[in-house]
Structures are given as C-alpha cells and as structure tokens.
Predict the structure.
Amino acid sequence: MIALISKAITIYTYVLVIYALLSWFPGAYDSKIGQFIIRISRPYLSMFDRLNLSVGPIDFTIIVAIFVLQLAGQGLILILARLIYMI
C-alpha cells in the first residue's frame, strides 16, 4: 500500500512536470495529450492560483505545487508506515 501511494505521487509529479513543459510549445495544450494533462492537473494546481507566485514573467506555482505534493506525500507515507508497524 505504501509503495502504491509512493508510485502514484511520483506519477502525478511527472504529470505536473509535463504540464509545465507543455507551456513551452505553442498549441501543445490543444492536443489530446495536452487536454488530458490539463484535465488531471488543473484541479490540484488551481489550489495554488490565488497565492500569486509569479515574479515578473516567471510563475513558480508548479514548483510550489510539486514541493507541497512531495512533502504531503512523504508525510502521509510516514504516518501510514507508523500505523502499519504499530499494529
């Protein structure tokens, strides 16, 4: 179970990185893959939109979102590991 959660967090992190990379290519969000990436990443990223993490033309929203995802994931894995080994 812990390995499954860890793998899911890793895969979702890759999805967020792909979302960021798609912004470098004009029209990439309009492709079927781009639409799929948007559909699964925007709900999570929208939580960070109101933080206004832009400095000039650079937006740090995805970096912060990935950092929070990794931190929360490691915390969840730590809690689950302690609960499983406590039994």
